[in-house]
Each structure stands twice: as C-alpha cells, then as structure tokens.
Amino acid sequence: MSLKSHLTIAALGGCMLAGGAFAQAPNLDAIPDKMPFDIPYGAPISLEKADAVLHAAFAESTKRGWKLNCAIYDSGANLVEFKRQDGAQLVSIAIAEHKARVAVKARRETRAIEDGVQKAGLIYLTTLDDFIASRGGIPLVEGGKIIGSIGCSGGTGSQDEAIAKAGAATINK
User: Which residues are within 8 A (CB) of 159 and not within 5 positions of it... i.e. 6 or more apart?
Assistant: First the structure.
C-alpha cells in the first residue's frame, strides 16, 4: 500500500473518530468541584533520578527495537538531561523536549491534551502557547508532588507514550 493510501485511510479514520467525539463532547459550562490536575510542584528531580528514568526508558525502547529521543525536565520546566538513541530521527529531538516541558508545566500527561483535541473537539487547545497535542509526555510525581517530567519522541504516539511510561514508572509508583 502506498504512502498516499495510508494517509488517506488515516485521515478518514480521524474524521470518523472526530465525528463520534463531537457527539459526546463534554459540557464545557460545567463547573468542577475540584481544580483538575492540581498536583503541587516539588523540589527538582536529581540528576541521579533523571539517569534512572532515562535508563528504564531506553531499556524498554531497546528491547522493542525502537529508536527514540527522550528528555527529562525538572519541576521548574528546565532541561535536566537529554539522550538520543543512535538512528533516532532528528526532528524528534525538539518534540521530545516539548512534550516533557508541557507535561511538567501543565501538570498532566500530554495524552490528556491530545484527547481533548481529538476526542472532545477542544481545538482551541492547539492555539495555547507551549502546548502539544501528542502523547509521550508524562509528569514525574514523587510523594504527591511533581519533581519533573519525561518526554519521548521518534515513534508513533503510542510508542512514545509506552517508553515514557516505562521511564516514569521508576518514579511514579
């Protein structure tokens, strides 16, 4: 099957998903009792912990044969560590960093933003500064506080997310 055929099928599938999502759009006028994603920021992740997160992420991606870029940010949205596996696509360097930065600043997995756009039709999310609607960014929460985040890119969204979750599991227990 050609690339054009794959893209056409993907576009049609996206339209079908979006159509169903709009029919089930959330009530945007509802006022929640609690503030969503209200996780306090904690002390910044240490380099030792950042190393452990990256080690776990790359162990999983190596096991699966996926070549990825991964970034670790601290609780202040500063880059702590970045690694690129041999052969990982270059465009994904900035995307991995962006996912990690958004996950810590927005205090949520970037999948929540992707779901908001794709499943709930909240297209305005794509207009917000420093947001990304793509899976693969996960906050790192220790003792109920965000100490940092991991962002992975280079594969599909589900691949990026799987590797980010493998790394995050060293902290998020």
Answer: 64, 66, 68
